[in-house]
Amino acid sequence: MKGKSVIIKVIILAAVLVFLLNPSLNPFLGAESKATVSAQLQETFGVLAGGTAGVFSAPKIITLLALIAAIWLIFTVVNYALTKISSFRKRASSVITLVISLVKYAAVLVAVIWGLSILGVNVGAIFASVGVLSLIVGFGAQSLIEDTITGIFIIFERNFEVGDYIVLDDFRGRVRKIGIRTICIEDDGGNLKIVNNSDIRNFQNRSEKLSLAVCDVGVSYDADLRQVEKELLDSLEEIYARNTDVFEEVPVYKGVEGLDASAVTLRFTVQAKEENVFAARRRLNRELKLVMDEKNIEIPFAQLVVHQGE
Hints:
The chain is about 50% helix and about 15% strand. It is elongated and about 105 Å long. α3 runs antiparallel to α4.
């Protein structure tokens, strides 16, 4: 459905363009007005002003298609080469994603200007008549310039790079792409967030240092706390040995975190890479549960004591 709507829009816009470029087709204009409009169009758009019959001749269409094919081929080759280079180093990947984005915009701009020249449009007259500054403002390029400059600063200041985990507002995810205007962030659920570079202000880079996975477990008030601590501490080296693919070091016992209504809460932590922090927490939870089952350490559940009056 989306593809069909795009085709319909293109057809409608093309029809409107043909109508506007042929004043003789406009029934609402008088002969004098048609002549004035034709002269103005001729000055700005060259041969297009005289109608579209001579514009889309076979030689011009073939030349235009060859131009599009050539630019597309060059962009594909450059894109492939830069992508291959970016796979070697993380730093290169961040820079090259921005370069690819720049090349894409440049290719489109060259194709449009060159294509109009092939069709006979006086591109130089267009730029001269509206002025470069007026053209920038007219296309609302102020935001584009701001996004582009911010993207360049992101790359060279190395605040974050492709592959880093960042927290932007309330969204946590891995940076998948840094473009000339936007960055793409993907969370652990595969959801993508596209953000304009100029909107990136307050964020955290979670990949610069190791992250901390936290596990809180409760033991019964009736248990011997010193004995429980000793047995759990003696098991931490074995827990680490079984999970070296996720844990970056041996888990650490932090102490008594709280005296809750039904349990004494003990806190354990382990260092892990940001991409593994949730997996590390799940692994640590599981390992501590297995150890407590093996050592017959009771994990209490919420209890309600009811006193009956006489």
